[in-house]
Structure formats: C-alpha cells, structure tokens
Amino acid sequence: MYAKSQSSSLCIPTQHERERLMGILHGYFDESGKVDKPAVAFCGFVAAASRIQSFDDEWNSILRVYEMDSLHMSRVFKAHVPLSAKIRKQSFAERIETLKPFADCIRKHFEYGMAMALMWPHSKPCHQVRRSNLAKLTTHTILLSCRE
Question: Which of 6, 40, 42, 92 is the most exposed place for a label (fewest CB within 10 A)?
Fold first, then answer.
C-alpha cells in the first residue's frame, strides 16, 4: 500500500514496502606479496562512480607535476632511489612530504579504503594453493573511512 501525498499524486512507499537498493562503487585495488611467501595482501579504495573521473584527473595532474608515469609503493619505500627525474633520492621524512599530495587526493575523492591479508597454512606459496584448500585460509580484513 502506498501513502499518497496531499498536494500531489506522488506515491511514496511506506517503510515496510521499501526494497533494498544495490549501489555500485568503483575502485582501485592492488595486491602485494611474493609468490614464494605464505601471505598476500589486497588493498584498495572505493567511491561512487561520479567521483572517479575527478580523482583520475587530479591524480594524473600530480604525476605530471612530479614527472612520473605511475606511483609504485615498492619504489616509494626505497627513499634512496629516485622516483623520477624531478624527485631524486631523499630522506624518509622528505619522501613522506613528497607523497602527501597523493594521500590528500585519495582522501578527497574516495569514501572507503579496504585492506585484506590472506595467509595459508604450511607456508605454501599462493600460486600452489589449490581451490579446495581456500577454506583453510586465514583472512584479516580492515575497512577504513577516508573521511574524517
């Protein structure tokens, strides 16, 4: 049964008639780990589709300013290694300062961050884990809000 508005013919469903809606989020995810180690991590950020283009534009703008094609954390953690022609080797404190615009961009455009670590028994590398053994995986998941 619908509740009819007094001023118009708009029909508004009552609370018990509302159906759940599915939202579609877009995100960027990446894995981290080595094939010979017993663990792998999946991390990423998600947002409404309407925020993705503005994120892409701002992220690419920061990359251009720093003269970088992409940002790889494996290189970022090696502060003694240049990130680009413009970003030479740095101290860790300097590297952190360099990365702040990227972190601000993520916080500005994304709603949630997610991190999941998967570990399996017997120190078997991930490429050797059989589908039948997936139930034995130990999973740790963290969901973070990108907003304050």
Answer: 6
